[in-house]
Backbone:
């Protein structure tokens, strides 16, 4: 069965990525972090807007991706836009596509501009995973409802007699959210599926994780993260760097870690998985008219986007299913792309994508391609590290990888790049950039 890899899309106005910023990604350490999701969005957005030659209310829209906004952050995009000084008349809206939420915000902004409905859009993603709520079990909620209805002492005594300690056990929303409700597998278990399917060894996963930390360390030391802006918390502390980096890790230390998701025989560990993290990232997209009107200097042109879906039990292959039709539509092969960003949800997941991308039978049967599109060179993939060392604030990562890819293209004088990520629930997203 041939997949619709070459379907045409109506051409719209050109869309440019002119600037962007992100906070440091701060590792969750067992207690709520210093910033809410809205705080993080404001911390990243304020310096970005302050350096622009226009006022914040010159924007046409603000679009923000977030998976778990707090109870005081309903339509978190609107909350962030108002706190950023965009004005009460500026529309703002929130999107949610699990791990692809930040990329979905960018895609929405891309189409708003390409279709002529906007000229300047601030789009991005934010997540405070350390502040994911603890919930009450539904059985306790039902008991509480009975308790509140009880008015007389005998009724209350009977209700108390039905209360059991197990009903008071909290439900961890983060763990529930990282488990697919359809197939009943955690995201880590889906990575174990891919490791088994493509025969990916534990040693290869740990080596990939170690390289992620080494690349991020080099990027920090050499100042290769220009999109990073410091965040200042309420106690006056400065958070200047991604703090999940483990400079002292080694293959020996990684090999000593036990499996997390498939005990005792699994291969996916905390060391070769993305870190639970807080962070936010914005990109500023503009039409050609806005670029000329404000004298902006684009980093890159957003050429096209693609979304795909597949079996949730193998959700980590989402990038393959999104990137293949994107490249085929533009008659590109892998060697036509200079740099790649594939979000590192798990080392096994990225390595499985690389294997599937070059597997002739998989490309033919799952993607409808006559032949593979060519290998992705490791030296051109995630050149400054990825989510294993940086962390993966799920709402923000899609915006981060696109923004950083634009900076990599500019730094290296390269022409073309692709950013992609897998999405819980069995989806994938991809963006094609070209340097202007």
Residues:
């Amino acid at each position: 069965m041939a997949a619709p890899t070459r379907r045409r899309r109506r051409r719209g106005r050109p869309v440019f990525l002119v600037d962007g910023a992100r906070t440091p990604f701060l590792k969750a350490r067992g207690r709520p972090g210093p910033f809410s999701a809205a705080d993080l969005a404001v911390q990243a957005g304020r310096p970005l807007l302050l350096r622009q030659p226009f006022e914040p209310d010159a924007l046409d829209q603000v679009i923000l991706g977030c998976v778990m906004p707090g109870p005081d952050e309903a339509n978190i995009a609107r909350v962030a836009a108002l706190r950023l000084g965009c004005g009460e008349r500026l529309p703002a809206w929130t999107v949610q596509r699990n791990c692809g939420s930040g990329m979905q915000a960018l895609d929405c902004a891309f189409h708003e501009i390409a279709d002529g409905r906007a000229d300047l859009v601030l789009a991005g993603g934010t997540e405070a995973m350390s502040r994911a709520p603890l919930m009450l079990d539904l059985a306790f909620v039902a008991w509480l409802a009975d308790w509140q209805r009880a008015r007389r002492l005998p009724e209350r005594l009977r209700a108390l007699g039905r209360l059991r300690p197990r009903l008071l056990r909290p439900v961890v929303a983060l763990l529930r959210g990282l488990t697919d409700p359809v197939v009943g597998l955690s995201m880590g278990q889906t990575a174990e599926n891919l490791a088994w399917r493509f025969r990916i060894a534990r040693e290869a996963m740990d080596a990939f994780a170690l390289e992620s930390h080494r690349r991020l360390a080099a990027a920090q030391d050499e100042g290769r993260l220009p999109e990073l802006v410091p965040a200042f918390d309420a106690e006056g502390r400065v958070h200047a760097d991604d703090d999940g980096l483990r400079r002292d890790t080694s293959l020996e230390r990684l090999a000593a870690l036990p499996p997390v998701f498939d005990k005792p025989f699994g291969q996916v560990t905390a060391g070769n998985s993305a870190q639970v993290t807080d962070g936010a990232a914005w990109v500023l997209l503009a039409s050609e008219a806005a670029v000329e009107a404000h004298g902006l200097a684009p980093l890159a042109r957003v050429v096209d986007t693609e979304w795909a879906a597949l079996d949730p039990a193998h959700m980590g292959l989402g990038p393959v299913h999104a990137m293949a039709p994107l490249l085929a539509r533009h008659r590109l092969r892998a060697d036509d792309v200079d740099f790649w960003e594939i979000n590192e949800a798990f080392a096994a997941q990225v390595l499985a994508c690389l294997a599937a991308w070059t597997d002739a039978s998989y490309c033919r049967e799952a993607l409808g391609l006559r032949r593979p599109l060519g290998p992705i060179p490791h030296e051109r993939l995630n050149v400054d590290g990825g989510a294993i060392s940086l962390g993966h604030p799920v709402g923000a990562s899609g915006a981060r990888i696109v923004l950083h890819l634009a900076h990599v293209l500019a730094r290296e004088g390269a022409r073309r790049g692709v950013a992609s990520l897998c999405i819980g629930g069995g989806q994938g997203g991809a963006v094609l950039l070209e340097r202007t």
